[in-house]
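Example 9 (inverse folding). The structure is encoded as follows.
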């Protein structure tokens, strides 16, 4: 996976005054499943459309397979795109929809038949070859759209929210199918979604975008466990954001005041004594402990609410200064509403940000 398949260098796209994509640089490796993730309007689709050639960058360079493609028309780029709306030809059978690209290229009949049946087999729709798109379910139509996109053996497949129109169960099933397909074909996938769970499930690496800029690029585990910015922390998964203040700084630790308590966390180079900070702690990383237990972090709280959610219980607690901490507990027997309790979490799972860093609601 070492070779670079797509390279974006200082890419900006302006629509009038708006910087839809704002000076991003990114290298996507051969065979990689890379996901562009971010809220609506952050520039994901615009980035994908520039790689496809449907939009021209205002400035910057795009390489595909080591070739500069800025001036190359979409149909001459080694990429294919799958959209959320399948854009199948309604009057053609499944077979003809998939064969269309090969017919345009005047591929010989025997080879065309072999290739169409191969991809129909890959997407498990061989027996549907004579149906029209309106005789297929949404998931089947999307598989046909994917079959059509891979039949020309593109180096790169661009997928713009391809599962967005499907219901949750089918979407989850198709996520796994797509991932397996990508692995077996060895094609580079650049995938756009605003669904963080989908991104975490499918990707080799995730690019988190916000307002046209890249906030973080990394493997799913690092994005989830070590979000670099407050934005990433809040956008990916559920988290508690708590206000604190730095009391002491030693060689490798910070001592923070949180409510009436002092806790120690890992040192952050840019954070100094007296700084106001925001702590991000995921609900599933917090545990209830008994008053008699001793832990590095031990926070007294009041239990405000217990909400049963099936596999776990969401427990809302409150610190002495009124800040709320939500815990996702699989052992709710330990607490009851309106009682005092004690919380702990691992200091290495506490992510600390300077409070003035992008304090906004997401
Ligand atoms: N052709 C255009 N003309 C003017 N503004 C545009 C155009 N295309 C996109 N934009 C704007 O650029 C910004 C980024 O849009 P883009 O479609 O890339 O976002 P996105 O992250 O894909 O969002 P979504 O998840 O809603 O599809 C938005 O503010 C959008 O309104």
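The amino acid assigned to each position is listed next.
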């Amino acid at each position: 996976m070492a070779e670079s398949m797509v390279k974006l260098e200082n890419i900006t796209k302006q629509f009038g005054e708006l910087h839809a994509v704002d000076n991003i640089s990114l290298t996507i490796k051969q065979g990689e499943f890379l996901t562009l993730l971010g809220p609506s309007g952050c520039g994901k689709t615009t980035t994908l459309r520039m790689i496809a050639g449907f939009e021209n960058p205002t400035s910057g360079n795009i390489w595909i397979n080591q070739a500069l493609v800025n001036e190359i028309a979409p149909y001459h780029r080694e990429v294919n795109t799958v959209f959320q709306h399948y854009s199948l030809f309604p009057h053609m059978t499944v077979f003809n929809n998939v064969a269309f690209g090969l017919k345009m290229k005047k591929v010989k009949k025997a080879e065309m038949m072999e290739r169409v049946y191969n991809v129909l087999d890959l997407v498990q729709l061989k027996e549907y070859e004579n149906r029209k798109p309106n005789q297929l379910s949404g998931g089947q139509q999307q598989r046909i759209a994917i079959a059509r996109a891979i039949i020309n053996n593109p180096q790169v497949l661009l997928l713009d929210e391809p599962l967005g129109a499907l219901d949750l169960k089918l979407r989850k099933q198709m996520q796994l199918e797509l991932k397996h397909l990508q692995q077996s074909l060895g094609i580079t996938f650049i995938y756009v979604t605003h669904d963080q769970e989908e991104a975490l499930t499918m990707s080799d690496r995730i690019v988190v975008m916000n307002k046209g800029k890249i906030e973080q690029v990394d493997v799913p585990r690092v994005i989830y466990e070590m979000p670099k910015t407050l934005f990433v922390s809040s956008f990916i998964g559920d988290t508690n954001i708590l206000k604190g203040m730095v009391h002491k700084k030693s060689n490798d630790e910070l001592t923070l005041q949180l409510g009436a308590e002092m806790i120690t966390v890992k040192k952050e180079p840019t954070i100094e004594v007296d700084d106001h900070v925001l702590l991000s702690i995921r609900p599933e990383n917090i545990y209830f402990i008994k008053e008699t237990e001793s832990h590095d972090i031990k926070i007294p709280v009041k239990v405000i609410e217990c909400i049963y959610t099936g596999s776990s219980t969401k427990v809302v607690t409150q610190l002495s200064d009124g800040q709320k901490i939500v815990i996702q507990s699989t052992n709710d027997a330990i607490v009851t509403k309106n009682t005092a309790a004690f919380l702990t979490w691992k200091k290495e799972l506490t992510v600390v940000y300077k409070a003035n860093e992008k304090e906004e609601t997401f």
